Amino acid sequence: MKFSIVDAFTDQIFGGNPAGVVILPSGRDFPSDDVMVKTAAELRYSETAFIKILGSERFNVRYFTPAAEVDLCGHATIGSFYTLLREGMIKPGKTYINETLAGELNIVVNDSSILMDMGDPEIFETIPAGEATKALYAIMGLDSENQGRSDEYPDIELLPKKVSTGLIDIMMPVRNEDELEKINPDFKALTELSKQYGVVGVHAFTLKARDGNIHARNFAPLYDIDEEAATGTSNGALAYYLYDLGIVKKDHINTVIQGEKMGRPSRIATQIVLEDGREKVKVGGFAVTLATGEISI
Question: Which family does the UniProt entry place this protein in (predicted)?
Fold first, then answer.
């Protein structure tokens, strides 16, 4: 089977977020879950995507971390469809169907960008103000005081919330880039907190960045990912969180910068659109190939 190592959400090698991509030969079913987990662990990237070809315009993609399968992974989806495009298995200017555990998703492929639907957006509980919020920020190495206040939106208090566009994360606001830079999680405690709240991890963000973009950092030690350089599902959830508050507007394309602390700056585009009267979240970017080869499984 052919595999690739792809840097997603970037146009430069060693930028963005790397993922493994394995394309199954036509007509072949997925290996066992155990084999796919071990393959992801051997490749040592946060996620590895396994692509089963269902038809000329339909694919089934499953996503594995070195520890377990997850329902959806944004950067591995970008990497997967970029790889299919590079291999000549799909063409630019068309829309493809990606069957995932998070549902059937549309993938719009162009020569220089790939825009994908996220799972249906959903906001779950707010992390209660007081001791629960203090505990969250303390685990992340911060003081919780005034983290949810923004000069640009003085009438809106940003509170940590559980949000999903395929995977549930805690959206955690911080007041500026300096606070974002200071984050230094207690990973053991964060793993336990993630289990307690039933989330993949924490997506910290700030609206007050010097370049005018949203900046974010993502942590998911429960799935053996201490920090991730670009996270499509989490930034899709962030877009919906901000849309629900009236900060992000329908149809506007927002840019999130992630991965700077890791030396792998990524640019993730997010957009909220209405389709059949329902909000849909789209996340986009492009990718480059670092390596290809054959994998004997």
Answer: Belongs to the PhzF family.
Among candidate residues 18, 273, 200, the one with its CA nearest the CA of residue 9 = 18
Please give the residue range of the domain that contains residue 192.
122-277
Residue with tokens 């602390």: 261
Classify residue 202 by burial, with Cβ atoms within 10 Å: 0-12, 13-18, 19+.
buried
Q: Contact, 197 vs 128, CB < 8 A? A: no
pTM greater than 0.90 (yes/no)? no
The single-letter DSSP state of residue 121 is P
262, 289: one domain: no
User: Per the structure block, which two tokens stand in for 194?
Assistant: 């993630």
The answer to whether the beta carbons of residues 108 and 115 sit under 8 Å apart is: yes
Active site residues: 47
pLDDT tens, position by position, 10-64: 988 998 999 999 999 998 999 999 999 999 999 999 999 999 999 999 999 999 9
Place of tokens 């350089």: 229
Q: Do residues 203 and 112 both lie within one domain?
A: no
Question: Do 211 and 94 reside in the same domain of the chain?
Answer: no
